[in-house]
Specification:
alpha/beta; single chain; Rossmann fold; 221 residues; binds adenosine monophosphate; 9 helices; 14% strand; five-stranded parallel β-sheet
């Protein structure tokens, strides 16, 4: 995969976007742009954007389109993304998708492929309840499906794993509702452009990964 490739990962929270993105980073050195990670970094830094984002994130609502479009625009044309990138958690509304198309076309770029990971709500709820993160690297684990070697510790650094505050059941339900109402319409949007591939996200992560690689190999040069 030599040519820069621009990928969107689409799916509900807990569908495995982060896990699959991490595999592509490890094998190909792809750059992952996760708006959720960027917003959490803004919250931790105490910035104005972070303050705006926090109240929406805490309720499981979406942060305003203008803010997320701004933070994505600040990154996607940087040198680090010259070899391509994976958008994880963006776009999440039709307005974001339209704006993304517009800013990419101004830079003679386009999204090459949208990978949709399909996972039913009941499995999302089970997966998220067991999610644990290593904050510094973004590595994720699941106490039920993908446990760390030592309970509560990151495999590589041995540092403490944490649970995200918005991973509690009530907020996850609200994030799922938000997904169905505001993000799912993007499936049709990208299907109509002929660039969407849907993959069963309930399968084994390695099987999903090999399907993703097959899909990327079929992207026209
Ligand atoms: P994530 O880590 O992708 O699950 O995102 C965590 C939270 O950040 C979401 O529940 C939203 O509140 C917010 N967020 C992340 N990406 C976006 C986006 N593209 N548009 C609006 N809000 C977002």
């Amino acid at each position: 995969m030599k040519k820069p490739i621009h990928i969107i990962f689409l799916g509900p929270p807990g569908c495995g976007k982060g896990t699959q993105a991490q595999k592509l980073i490890n094998e190909f050195g792809f750059v992952q742009l996760s708006t959720g990670d960027m917003l959490r970094a803004a919250i931790n830094s105490g910035s104005k954007i972070g303050k705006h984002a926090k109240s929406a994130i805490d309720k499981g609502n979406l942060v305003s389109d203008d803010i997320v479009i701004g933070i994505v625009r600040d990154r996607i044309f940087n040198a680090e993304c010259a070899g391509g990138y994976m958008l994880d958690g963006f776009p999440r509304t039709l307005a974001q998708a339209d704006k993304l198309d517009q800013i990419l076309s101004e830079h003679h770029q386009k999204i090459d492929v949208v990978i949709r990971l399909c996972v039913p709500d009941d499995l999302v709820l089970r997966r998220i309840a067991g999610r644990r993160f290593h904050l510094a690297s973004g590595r994720s684990y699941n106490i039920e499906f993908n446990p760390p070697l030592i309970e509560g510790k990151d495999d590589i650094t041995g540092e403490q794993l944490v649970q995200r505050e918005d991973d509690n059941e009530e907020i996850v339900q609200s994030r799922l509702n938000t997904y169905h109402e505001q993000t799912e319409p993007l499936v049709r949007f990208y299907e109509e452009k002929g660039i969407l591939t849907a993959i069963d996200g309930t399968r084994d992560p390695e099987e999903i990964y090999s399907k993703i690689k097959q899909t990327l190999n079929q992207v026209p040069a």
